[in-house]
Amino acid sequence: MSIAVVGAGWAGLAAAVRLRRAGRAVRVYEAATAPGGRARWIDHPGLGLRIDNGQHILLGAYSATLALMRSLDVDPARALLAGDLDLRSADGGLRLRFWPLPAPLHRLGVLLGSRGLDGGRGRRHLARVFGALEPQRVDPCATVADWLAGLGCPPDLMTRLWEPLCVAALNTPARAAQARLFVRVLADSLGAGPAASRILIPRDGLHALWPARACALLGEGLRRQRVRAIAPGPAGGWRVDGEPHAGVILAVPAAEARRLLAPLPGAADFLDGWTEPAHSAIGTLTLRLARPWDSGRPMLLLRDEPACDAWGQWLFDRSASARAHAERRLVHVVIGTADRYAGRDPARLAAGVIAQIRAQAAAGSLPPLPQIEAHALVTERRATFDAVPGLRRPGMATPWPGLLLAGDWTDTGYPAVLEGAVRSGLAAADGILAA
């Protein structure tokens, strides 16, 4: 019998690919029109283009995702724009980059290659951060703000560097975010050296990275259907909406997993063992320009001031990373913890962000932003779980043989990032194969 994978996000598709490569028959159920989960494409009528529903970058440390791409004959060197760590603010006031020094001197390379770190005080703080990148030694109850304060973080560096990095990694403000998860991300990227911290930006959109190949591999094994119920089979195995399967991988959001698990015998005790997390939104304002901006920077840090309607935190200039001409005319601005702008006038929000870009680009001596032909705001309401201290996340195992969990919300050791989703899907598939 086949294996059922419920959910065609990055976790579910990764699991399905692993199972198919191992010779197992797979049926993938996906409720949404497009696969990809929170990293899917949408056709936006206001822009007249197909765009990603949000902007995601990969890191050189994302070994599982890069290996999965290669297994599907996708060359990361062609599919991704790769660059050494070089985070710059649009206004030119901050730069964080590696000087190419061999390990273990690579951490010194960050101190030498960066600017805007609040002088010697900021450099000493950054040196202490590099010396404290051991997640297992971080107090599990500490917030990111607590951890950084204990390392003598200057207030301006907290505002200009760590807060946007924390929101980018965890989509949770530093005052509330779990320090241990944040340190794990830093340790696997900044702490691991230049190769691990390389910034990888998709050239042709997220679906083209590898999900498109996965969907082609699955063919008719990918079905558009919201699963109503799962239940143990009368003679073993499982039934998914009445269809028999040898095993099931639930690769759906936490709330959907709870809905499907709740009717199973003994579910109450299992569900009590993990937290139903709160979620936060991520917004993306996309600008379609009359011509490519040609700023020369694929990714820039923005200084946000919501009180002045300057909501943007990260800017992606697709003229520096995309291949298709139509996409090279796009600029995406990411707004983390986007629940903050709920109820605000979208036109006013867009005008504020556009003014923010123009002012900070001028301060940083970037070319003027070309004429804007259209803009669109896309808000992913439940983009990520809130990565707070005390969050209890389940592993892949369940009390029911042949039923496993996958998803970035499970206990991957990472926050809600794409690499965590891929790793969880691969681990769940391996669990099925080992049974």
UniProtKB/TrEMBL annotation:
Residues 11-433 form the Amine oxidase domain. GO terms for molecular function: oxidoreductase activity. InterPro entries: Amino_oxidase, FAD/NAD-bd_sf, SQase_HpnE, Zeta_carotene_desat/Oxidored. It comes from the Bacteria. Pfam families: Amino_oxidase. This is Squalene-associated FAD-dependent desaturase.
